[in-house]
Design goal:
- This protein is α/β, with parallel strands linked by helices and 154 residues long.
- Helix content is 34%, strand content 19%.
- It has five helices and seven strands.
- The strands form two sheets. Strands 2-1-3-4-7 form a five-stranded parallel sheet, with helices on both faces.
- The longest helix has 14 residues.
- It is globular and about 40 Å long.
- The N and C termini lie far apart (38 Å).
């Protein structure tokens, strides 16, 4: 059986409606939908490495910040990738999230700091910038009405 990994967006969770819809639409494929605590981006990267070491992932799917990570994982692990409205510069996009936040799904509260954004920036400039996306294995789904991307990016 093929296995997909779904990486949710910022302030979401692996138990979100979107994750459930993806799981249902891809049945009978096995779809892993873990929750990532984006406050600690280094822990997210470690969690992703562990998933790819422990599971045989055939395709990685991600939305928004998860789309950014899906691109990275697809290129890094040579997997098929579907990036849905991927964020391209998370340290800039997440700037508006500085301060107190509440996860839409888990209701967990946390504070996003400048130091957190610096971790995203370092990763984007040092690691993400080096990936080579395989056009034969990478697909983008973009929506002009995305709340993060908005209609000013087309």
């Amino acid at each position: 059986m093929k296995t997909a990994l779904y990486i949710h967006g910022f302030n979401s969770a692996g138990s979100s409606n979107k994750a459930e819809n993806i799981r249902r639409k891809l049945a009978p494929m096995k779809v892993l939908t873990p929750t990532f605590a984006y406050k600690d981006f280094n822990a997210v990267l470690k969690q992703l490495r562990s998933i790819f070491m422990m599971q045989k992932i055939d395709v990685v799917i991600g939305t928004s910040l998860g789309g950014f990570l899906a691109l990275y994982c697809g290129a890094t692990y040579n997997k098929y990738c579907v990036a849905i409205n991927p964020v391209t510069k998370p340290h800039e996009t997440l700037r508006k999230m500085l301060g107190e936040n509440c996860n839409f799904v888990t209701k967990e509260k946390y504070i996003m700091t400048e130091q957190d954004l610096a971790v995203y920036q370092k990763f984007t400039e040092n690691d993400f910038a080096k990936i080579k996306v395989n056009p034969n294995k990478t697909h983008f789904l973009l929506s002009l009405d995305d709340e993060v991307l908005g209609d000013h990016h087309y």
